[in-house]
Every structure is written in structure tokens, then in C-alpha cells.
Amino acid sequence: MTTTSFGDVHTTGQPPITPxxxxxxxxxxxxxxxxxxxxxxxxxxxxHSNSDDDWQQIAELGMKLAESxxxxxxxxxxxxxGKPAERxxxxxxxxxxxADLHRFIRWPVHVAIMxxxxxxxxxxxxxxxxxxxxxxxxxxxxxxxxRAPRDMSAGRI
Length: 157
What we know:
About 30% of the residues lie in helices and about 30% in strands. By secondary structure, the protein is of the alpha+beta class. It has a single domain (about 25-145), classed as Alpha-Beta Plaits, CATH 3.30.70.100.
């Protein structure tokens, strides 16, 4: 178990997952801006696949992509999450700025992944600004999205 410090806030690697929801998460994956105490941008993504095989491939791809996190400029860190019973998963990432988040979205590796999966999965996302990163509060806000029923007709990439 890892412990990450966020100024006066300490958290274990796992977020405070509410029991009974069928959710799991990676440990906190720190980026180069881990520990930032200024305002942050949080980004939540939620994908839904049509098959167990696709879900597994996407989860593996997310873990592979996360290997680059320690060098991702402007990234404080992220949690990857999954809800296998619904073939859903995604991330909660923390950024120094919107520009940093947009740089990641435009990163050629990310763009290639999104193009490859276009038409095969549905993706929804949300982002918000916070005065500072408080892990438990950020996770609980994202978890509300994870627990909400999905409109599977919307958000197909």
C-alpha cells in the first residue's frame, strides 16, 4: 500500500470506494505535479464496451497508457477505475491546468487510441475545477458518475 501526500492531506493509494457498488480502482498513479496545492482541473472519463473481450482490451490499454503518467507534463496523477459487471471503466485524472489536460487529449498516442476504438465503445466525460485537490472529495464526486445509470445511446466514439 502506498501513501501519497497532498499538502496537509494524506491518502492511501486506493480511493475511498463506497462498498457494494461493484467498483475497483488502481492505486494512485502519481504524475510529475503530484502534491500540487494550487487550483486543479479534474477530468473523469467513463467508457462502456459491448463485449467482455473489448472491456478487457480497453482495461489493458488503460494500464499501458498509465505507464507514461510519471512523465506526463502537468499531470498530478490519476486513478483508473472499473465496473466489470457493466463493462464500464475509465479514469479520474488531476491536472495543473486545462491546457495540460488538452495537451494529453491531443497527444498522438491518445488520439490514435480514440480513433482505433471509434464506433466500438461509448465514452462520456466530465471535468471540473477545484481550488485544490482533496482526494476523497474528488473521488466521491467521480463515484457519483460511476454509480449513475448510463444512457448507452449517447457518447459513442
